[in-house]
Amino acid sequence: MKVIQILKKRINPKFRLMACAFPSGKFTLLDVGSGNHSPSKTKKVFPFCEYHGVDLKADERYNEPDRKAMSAFYELDLSLLQYDSIPDDYFDFINMAHVIEHLSNGEEVLKRLLSKLKKGGYIYVEFPGIRSLKLPSMHGTLNFYDDPTHVRLYRYTEVSDWLTTFGCTVLKCGVRRNWPYIAAIPFRVLYALLTGKKINANIFWDITGFAEFVFARKNG
């Protein structure tokens, strides 16, 4: 199991950034959109991190291990811009992966969330990019419109400009291309076929350029 956690640190895009920024594994994390068992998965890789989750609902997507993994959970609608329950100037890292596309006011949401980040802290934002408009439809989401809850397409250039305006330095940005994930495509497809599972679109995100990202540090 320890080998698996080490591999996840090196392969998973957000985990790799966290590990590089905080080699000791001790940091405060605000995970915006913390579903899909992200709390328990993150704590397995970073057992010493202080995990805070944000989501619209604390529903069945959160099992008992997820709840135990979180130091705090904030149930709120991001679009309403009411984040008083989240402490200001507290977090070392804000992760916001595949959330902003569900919001029409992403610029203002990012501005408000940055008040929760410490000076010198990091923010990672990932979302479907412009290429997703031309990709075929697939189980999961490969075309932007596969998900009916997507409301706005963002580009990494505009998100980078916003974060710069809000007092951040953009460290990396562009189309997400994770080469270990690309190399693993045949094995992931074969595994799905052998286990009778549907082939999920996220297997092909990196080879198709489905997602864009911005990684930035708050100036201080």
Tell me what you see in this structure.
The mean pLDDT is 95. The protein contains 9 helices and 7 strands. Strands 3-2-1-4-5-7-6 form a 7-stranded mixed beta sheet, sandwiched between helices. It is globular. The protein is α/β, with parallel strands linked by helices. The protein has a single domain (2-218), classed as Vaccinia Virus protein VP39 (Rossmann fold, 3-Layer(aba) Sandwich). It has helices spanning 2-11, 13-21, 38-45, 64-69, 106-113, 156-165, 179-183, 185-195, 205-208, and strands at 28-32, 50-55, 72-75, 91-97, 117-128, 168-175, 211-218. Strand 1, helix 3 and strand 2 form a beta-alpha-beta unit.
Comma- or semicolon-separated keywords:
220 residues, alpha/beta, Rossmann fold, 7-stranded mixed β-sheet, 9 helices, 7 strands, 32% helix, globular
Secondary structure topology:
Layout lengths: L1 H10 L1 H9 L6 E5 L5 H8 L4 E6 L8 H6 L2 E4 L15 E7 L8 H8 L3 E12 L27 H10 L2 E8 L3 H5 L1 H11 L9 H4 L2 E8 L2
Parallel strand pairs: 1-2, 1-4, 2-3, 4-5
Antiparallel strand pairs: 5-7, 6-7
Rg from alpha-carbon coordinates: 17 Å
CATH class category label: Alpha Beta
Q: In the CATH hierarchy, what is the architecture at level 2?
A: 3-Layer(aba) Sandwich
Task: Kindly state the percentage of residues in helix.
Answer: 25-40%
- Biggest β-sheet description: 7 strands, mixed
| Mean pLDDT over the full residue set | 95
Q: Which shape, going by the Cα principal axes? A: globular
Low-pLDDT sequence parts: none
Secondary structure: number of strands: 7
User: Order of strands in the sheet with the most strands?
Assistant: 3-2-1-4-5-7-6
Number of helices: 9
Task: Classify the fold: give the CATH topology.
Answer: Rossmann fold
The named CATH superfamily: Vaccinia Virus protein VP39
